[in-house]
Amino acid sequence: MTFWITQALNGISFGMLLFLLAAGLSLIYGLMRVLNLAHGSYYILGGYVGLAAMRATGSFVLATVAATATVTLVGIVMERFFLRRFPEQELPQALLTFGFLLIFADLSLWLWGGTPQTLPKPAMFERSIRIGAIVFPTYRLFVIGIGLVIGLGLWWLQEGTRLGAMIRAGVDDAEMARGTGVNVGLLSTAVFAFGAFLAGLGGIIGGPFVGVYPGADFEILEMALVVVIIGGLGSLKGAFVGGLVVGLLDNFGKALFPELALFTVFAPMAVILAVRPTGLFGAR
Amino acid sequence: MNARVASGAVALAVLIGLPAVLSSYQLSLLTKMLIFGIFAMSLDLLLGYAGLPSLGHAAYFGVAAYTVGLLALRVANNFWIDFPAGLLMAAAVSALFGLFALRTRGSYFLMITLALGQVLWGIAFGWRSLTGGDDGLPSVPRPRLPLPWALTEGVPFYYFVLICFALATGLLALVVSSPFGQALIGIRESERRMEVLGYDVWRYKYVAFVLAGLFAGLAGNLFVYFNGFVSPSYLNIVFSASALLMVILGGAGTLVGPAIGAAVIVGLENLISAYMERWVLVLGVIYVLVTLFAPSGLVGLVRQRLGRSRA
Fold first, then answer.
1. Which of A21, A112, B120, B270 is deepest in the core (most CB within 10 A)?
2. With 0-12 CB in 10 A as exposed, 13-18 as middle and 19+ as buried, what is B160?
3. Which has the closest alpha carbon to A128: A137, A119, A120, A141?
4. How high does pLDDT run on average in chain A?
5. What element of type H or E holds B282?
6. Spatial CA neighbour of B244 closest among B280, B208, B193, B295
7. Can you tell me the ipTM of this complex?
8. Which of B74, B169, B164, B57 is nearest to B120 (CA)?
9. Domain total in chain B
10. Which pLDDT does position B1 carry in this prediction?
C-alpha cells in the first residue's frame, strides 16, 4: 500500500510539472497554431539560468525571477522576429523551432557542460513528512500545490477575465476576434511569452527532482507532446488531465516495468489516438 | 523531360567515374551522401508530393537497419534473407503507423509521426537484451554476394550503393510522374477537390506513406552495411528532422533537390566537425537560415535565378 501511495504522489507531482509545460504548449497552439518544438528548451534554459543565479545569489526567489525573465524574453524574441513571419505554416514553424531547439541544446552544453545537475530546493521544503508508514518529501507536495494554484489561476484567467475572453475568442476564430477590435498580434506575443514563462518556471520547479541535463529538453518536449496529444491541443483542461495521466503512467511504468518505461506512456497515447485523433478535450 | 533524362545520365556518368579520382576517405563520404540521398528522397515522396510533413521518418530507416543488423549478427549473414527482411519490416511498420498518422493533418500529423517514431526509439533504447540499448549494435558484417569483388572493399561497396541509388531514383521518378504521383500532387494542392473528383484520398496517401517507408528502409539497410553499426540515434527525432531539413534545403517536390540537400548536409557536417566541436549549433543555425531565406530550397533558388536571367 505504501508503495502505491508514494508512487501515486510522485506521479502526480511529475504530472503537475508536465501540466506547466503542456499548458503553455497548448495555449500557444490554440491561439497561433504554432507547434513550438523549442518548448523543452525553455525548461532547460530555466533550470540552467536558475542554477547559475542561485549559485550567485543563494536565493531561490531571485533565481526564479532571473530564470523566468530570461526565458520569457527568449520567447518574445522567437515570436516577434521569427515565428510571426510564418502564420499558419506548420512546416516552416517546425523547422524554425527545431533549429532553436538545437541551438539552445548546444549552447547549454557549451556553457554548462554535460554533467547532469540538480537545483537545490528552497530551504523551507527540504524535509520530509511522515504520515503513518509513508514518508514523503515536502518538496513534492509543494510542486503539487504550485501546479494546482497555477491551474486554478489559469482557469480563472481564461473563464473569468476580459483577457481570457479575448484569448478564447482568438482561439475560436482569430479573424472574427480581430474584427471585433482584439489586437491578436499583441495577444499572440503575450500568450507566447506566458507559455515560455510557464516552461521556464517548470525548469526551476522540476530542477530539484527531475534535474537539468543535455537531452532533458527532448525528453520534456516529448512528454509534453504526449500530454497534449492525449488531452487535446488548445485545451487547458486537456493539459491538466493529460498531465496527470502521463505523470502517473510514467511513474508507475518506470516502477513496475523498467524495461518498457516509455512504452507505458506511448501505448495508451496510441489507443487514444485511434479512438479520438484530436485528444480527449480537443476541438474537432 | 528529355533534358531531365539527359542530365540524369550525365550525373550518373560522373558518379560512375568519381571513384577514379577520389581518395578512399572521400569515396566513403560520397557513399554516405548517396545513402542519405535515398532517405531524403523517400521523405520527399511524402512531403513534397503528398504534402505530408512527417517528423518521424527515421523510424523506417532505423527499423530496417536494426532488422538487418540483428539478423546478420544473431541469425545468419545472408543477404538474400536479411536485405528483404529489412525492407519488409520498414514497410510493415510504416503500414502500421500510417493507420494512426493519416487520421490527422497539419500540426497533429507532425506531432503524431514524431511521437510514433519516439516509441521505436524508446524500444531500441530500453530493450537492452535485444538491441544493446544505448550502445547499439556494433560490428555488423557486410554481405557476401556471388560477385568477383568483395563488398568489404570501398569501391565495390560504393558501386553497390550507387546501383541501389540509381534504382531508387528511377523508381521514385516513375512513381511521381505516374497518374498515381499526379494524384498525390492534386491531393497536396487540394484534398477536397480530389475527393469531389472521386479519388479515394486516404488510399493514395496511405500507399504513399508505405512506399516512403519502404524506400527509407532501403536507405537503412544500406547504411547498416556501410557503417557496420547502428544505435538508437538513427531512430530519433534529431535524425527525422534532419531528413526534413535535407528535403527543404534541396527543394521539396523535386526528387533531385533532396538528394542534393542530403549531400550538402553530410558534406557540411564532415567539414565543420573537422574544425570545431559545435556542429549541432551550426546545424541549428542552418535550420533557421533555410527557413528564413531558402524556403523553396536550392533548386528553387536556381530556378528563380534562371527565370530572372531569361526575363
1. A21
2. buried
3. A137
4. 89
5. helix B279-293
6. B295
7. 0.90
8. B57
9. 1
10. 58
Residues of B in contact with A101 (CB under 8 A): 284
C-beta contacts of A154-160 below 8 A and 24+ residues apart: A154/A23, A154/A236, A155/A236, A158/A236
Q: What are phi and psi of A281, to 5 degrees?
A: -115, 10
Residue B295 lies in a domain: no
Enumerate residues 6+ apart whose C-beta is below 8 A from A284: A278
How far, in Å, are A224, B100, B109, B202 from residue B105 at the CA level? 19, 11, 5, 12
Does A263 lie at the interface with B, CB-CB under 8 angstroms? yes
Please tell me the predicted confidence (pLDDT) of residue A235: 85
Q: Which residues pair with B268 in a beta bridge?
A: none
Question: Would you call A91 and B288 a contact, using CB atoms and an 8 Å cutoff?
Answer: no
User: Which tens digit of pLDDT belongs to each residue from A185-215?
Assistant: 888 899 999 999 999 999 999 988 889 999 9
pLDDT tens string A211-236: 999 999 999 999 999 999 899 888 88
Say if pTM beats, i.e. exceeds, 0.80: yes
Structural domain contains residue B99: yes
Whole-angstrom Cα distance, residue B101 to residue B148? 45
* A267-270 contacts at long range (C-beta below 8 A, 24 or more positions apart): A268/A230, A269/A226, A269/A229, A269/A230, A269/B115, A270/B100, A270/B116, A270/B119
CA distance A262 to B291: 32
SS3 content of chain B, % helix, strand, coil (to 5): 80, 0, 20
Q: B185-189, long-range: CB within 8 Å, 24+ apart, which pairs?
A: B185/B49, B185/B253, B187/B50, B187/B51, B188/B49, B188/B50, B188/B51, B189/B51
Tell me which residue range forms the domain holding B66.
24-235
Q: Does any CB of chain B come closer than 8 Å to the CB of residue A280?
A: no
All cell numbers assigned to A8: 501515486
Which architecture, in CATH terms, is A2-275? Orthogonal Bundle (1.10)
* Minimal Cβ distance to B287: which of A85, A86, A95: A95
Rg, chain B, Cα only: 19
- Alpha carbons B271 and B262: distance in angstroms, whole number: 14
Domain residue ranges in chain A: 2-275
C-alpha cell at A276: 479520438
The answer to whether position B165 is within a domain reads yes
Low-confidence ranges of chain B (pLDDT < 50): 311
* Positions in chain A short of pLDDT 70: 261, 283-284
Please check whether residue B264 lies inside any domain of the structure.
Answer: no
